Amino acid sequence: MLTALESGPATLAGLVTATGLARPTAHRLAVALEHHRLVARDLQGRFVLGPRLGELAAAAGEDRLLAAAGPVLARLRDITGESAQLWRRQGEHRICVAAAERPSGLRDTIPVGSQLTMRAGSAAQVLLAWEEPEKANRLLQTATFAPTALTAVRRRGWSQSVGEREAGVASVSAPVRSPSGKVLAAVSVSGPLERLTRQPGRIHAPAVMAAAERLSESLRRAAE
Q1: What is the DSSP letter of 144?
Q2: Which pLDDT score is estimated for 60?
Q3: Using CB atoms within 10 A as the burial measure, which of 47, 130, 162, 166 is most buried?
């Protein structure tokens, strides 16, 4: 049935013809798939592929993303001299799913598995900048950054924060995208303000964006 819907919206009669199923069986299966969000309805009431399929595809892409993240983050750390992380959103939080720590000296240490809020930090800005307006606006009500900050992130393709998440810490982040263009994660570098300055993007945005693009490209190659 899902294969039948791959070519576009279909009425129940169309599904019966495409699948060879009896009409009651086709209807029962379509309704069950709709319940699990694998199938949805368009404005004309026709059956279409549901949002859950996109979520599953994104999850598969994120597994490939983790496999590619290690060397990319290590290279970013070596180029910038700062700790590098990969962040993924989970509801109202963001999770550090991969990291490459600066080996010595003053650094911003964020262990893999760390869970931070979406209220502050350059990674939170990136993960919200391309979110659906309704969802973004709900989180912005308690954020330390304004909606105009997200407009700037979308315009230039990267974000920066200075003392938002923690006093004395600055960071720069850029989006990692799926082959369809959806933002799946944020690549970041973070470190003490005394090294990153109050304009960390001027120093590290090119390297962070290049790392994010390398990860996005790895997902595009895997999808081909």
Answers
A1: S
A2: 59
A3: 47
- Can you name the CATH fold of 2-49? Arc Repressor Mutant, subunit A (1.10.10)
Cross-strand bridge partners of residue 206: none
How far apart, in whole angstroms, are the C-alpha atoms of residue 78 and residue 72?
Answer: 10
CATH class in words for 54-223? alpha beta
Tell me which residue of 45, 49, 2, 50 sits closest to 26, measured CA to CA. 2
DSSP E strand stretches across 82-138: 83-90, 93-100, 115-117
Comparing CA positions, the residue from 157, 160, 176, 144 lying closest to residue 65 is 176
Please tell me if the domain spanning 2-49 has the same topology as the one spanning 54-223: no
Which residue is associated with the tokens 């912005």? Answer: 140
Return the closest-CA partner of residue 193 out of 106, 109, 118, 111. Answer: 106
List the one residue out of 177, 178, 175 whose CA is nearest residue 223: 178
pTM of the model as a whole? 0.71
* Between residues 199 and 61, the one the model is more confident about: 199
Confidence of residue 209 (pLDDT cuts 50, 70, 90): very high
Mean pLDDT of 151-159: 96
**Alpha-helix residue ranges (DSSP H) falling in the chain:** 2-5, 12-19, 23-35, 51-80, 122-129, 133-140, 147-156, 193-196, 200-223
Boundaries of every domain in the chain: 2-49, 54-223
Confidence of residue 90 (pLDDT cuts 50, 70, 90): confident
Nearest to 126 by CA among 162, 73, 89, 96: 89
- Are 40 and 5 in contact by the 8 Å Cβ rule? The answer is no
